Fold this protein.
Amino acid sequence: MTAAPARHRMRAAIAVTAGLTLAVTLAACGKAAQVDQSGGSAHRGNLRIGLLLPDNEIARFDRFDKPLIKKRIKELCPRCTVDYASAQHDAATQQHQVDSMIANGVEVLILDAVDGRAIRSSVIRARQANIPVVAYDRLAEGPISGYVSFNGAEVGRLQGQALLKALAPHRPGHRDQIVMMNGSSTDPNSDWFKRGSLEVLRGRVTIGKSYETIGWRPENANLNMSGAIAALGADNIQGVLSANDGLASGVIAALKAAKIHPLPPVTGQDAELGAVQRIIAREQLMTVYKPFKPEAYAAAEMAVALGRGTSLAGIAKERVNSGSSQSIPAVLLHPIALDVHNLKILIRDGMYTTDQICTEKYAAACRKAGLIT
């Protein structure tokens, strides 16, 4: 039978407020839902879960996050369904997608926000419709019911430590000069990564230029890096703290275009295949590997628990603040620093096969790194 009339009216009102013309279709559920204090609902029938990811340009989302989340939901709840949407890295698009899912009867949302601030109003509308929201990978503002990510400060510290280790030994009175290529200012994780790296780097290097890279886009990192080279001089950049692998690709392209050789050490994050190959080729120093399976599984487990109205106490052992007064149950996982010496971890974990990494172009480098014989 249909959900309770009050809930139907709330969703219809939200659809009108959002300017949507969609017909309001409420999910079938064996019994009317009863809201619990966490924003979830006691649900004995099927669950309809909305999964909203920021884009499909970054390989991880389509290759790992989406299929792993859907797989775990099916394991926990075989008759649950997942409504998926990619925002194509547009905050307004994602707001409409959230409103559309609310109007069409989803009962839980897993949300990786394009812009953690801009999505606040949509998160509030979800709470008004008694739909709990799990913030995935990035912490969105508003009444979030659960959060799963990796410890961002630890990511930054690993990057900073690797960069310092790679720089030449300090001479008395000398500090190496670096460029910081940070992520997008609309992503709260960017500041988290930056603060972690500065814990390590502050007072030990000179930061010649520091950029907030719009949209996490490699082409913007490329433009920023070209500007840094022009401003500081090709011989005056000893390293680059790059917040992720996509930015690192843009940075390295700019360094090559300026004919800088040898390349200075450049950090990264996400263990993208292209980055792994750059590490093997000694073009990129390192990446931070965040095993996607435990992150995706934790989000799926949170969503199913909230949809069923059960406590997150057995899943979330930590708490974080969203910028409001509330304390959010959280799972904060530990990242791993990877360089040319321990890339076999990715093969062991099933991220990539040796054949995927060690194509003909990288065969000699792979042999030198011990990945193939």
User: Anything to note?
Assistant: Residues 273 and 356 are 8 Å apart (CA to CA). Confidence is low (pLDDT under 50) at residues 1-43.
